[in-house]
Amino acid sequence: MKTIRDIAKEAGVSVSTVSRVLNNSGYCSSETRMKVERAAVDYYPNIIAQEMVKGSSKVIGVMVSHTAEYFFQNPFYSEVLLGICDALKEKQYRLLLLMNEKKEDLVKLFYHRQIEGLLLMSAKMDDNMLEYLQEKKLRFVLIGDYHECSLPIVKVDIDNEKYAYEAVSYLVGIGHKRIGYISGPLSNGACYTRMQGYRRALEDCGIQVKEEYIQICDSGTEREALNAAKKLLYMPERVTAVFGFNDTVAISVYKAAEDLGLSVPEDISVVGFDDSKIASYVSPTLTTVSQPSYEKGYGAAQVLLDIVENENVTKPLPALSCYMVFRKSCVPPKS
């Protein structure tokens, strides 16, 4: 890719002359302008560098604390990212996707003005990540929850425990007592708090929580979820219902049941979380908790841009609302 220096050398003019021609500022003879324009074919200006000269990169970093495979296969993150992109586009900001960056490197990006702020899209990180970023005065907003952090941090989230509680209570309400839960890594705040909701719902209904009915998927991949589902369905005292921490995990129960000659919902009821598009496409359609994934991303980006542009110290934001979508994947257990 050509640089301004390359163009200046090829046209036989100074760098400042090239700059005047490309930016259409100041006087240049028509002959000189023609030389520069011919030499500038295939030149693309470094927009980020131009903005940095003005004191702003107009770039927002989006930090993802998962593997690329998990992130790009998860429809929840796709919706959140779409919301972020739309909000940034409205203010003419660009997005820099960061995968599992070290906290020290994030701060360097901020200090060197390569990013103006940071959106943390998941909370699977080492215990002092958020504290460190706050100590270094990096402007950031957390999308989700981080249950181990007690600092006042700006975040956009839902009440994960509340809606997991409602999902499990629904299963109990239609007669299920042997209810399994397939969770993602408990270092992820949403997974941890949803498990708390699962436990509390059973306890409040007088049902003993059996640890063998809880399966943890540390990588969160579809293969691991399928293996977890099979473990629940292979048990001598098989569960009659499964609550999955997201729709992808819940749908893995469909495949596990099919492999064992079982049917959803006749033999096993299933509830998911997210209400991703696939929930209404599978057969039977999936009962799930609908959360505002797009709104999470859009709202978090808006809040961060307000902090970046206006230095507003945002008050704690209210949790976004969710609701259950009842479809065809749940029936009362067989007698």
From TrEMBL:
Outline the extent of the HTH lacI-type domain: 2-54
The record's section on InterPro entries has: HTH_LacI, LacI/GalR-like_sensor, Lambda_DNA-bd_dom_sf, Peripla_BP_I
Which Pfam families does this entry report, sorted A to Z? LacI, Peripla_BP_3
Question: Which CDD domains does the record match to this protein?
Answer: HTH_LacI (cd01392), PBP1_LacI_sugar_binding-like (cd06267)
Highest rank taxon of the organism: Bacteria
Alphabetized GO MF terms: DNA-binding transcription factor activity; transcription cis-regulatory region binding
User: Does Membrane appear among the keywords?
Assistant: no
The record, for SUPFAM superfamilies, names: lambda repressor-like DNA-binding domains (SSF47413), Periplasmic binding protein-like I (SSF53822)
Q: Which UniProt keywords are listed?
A: DNA-binding, Transcription, Transcription regulation
PANTHER family in alphabetical order: HTH-TYPE TRANSCRIPTIONAL REGULATOR GALS (PTHR30146:SF109), LACI-RELATED TRANSCRIPTIONAL REPRESSOR (PTHR30146)
Identification of the protein by name: LacI family transcriptional regulator
| Organism of derivation | Candidatus Enterocloster excrementigallinarum
What lineage is this protein's organism placed in?
A: Bacteria, Bacillati, Bacillota, Clostridia, Lachnospirales
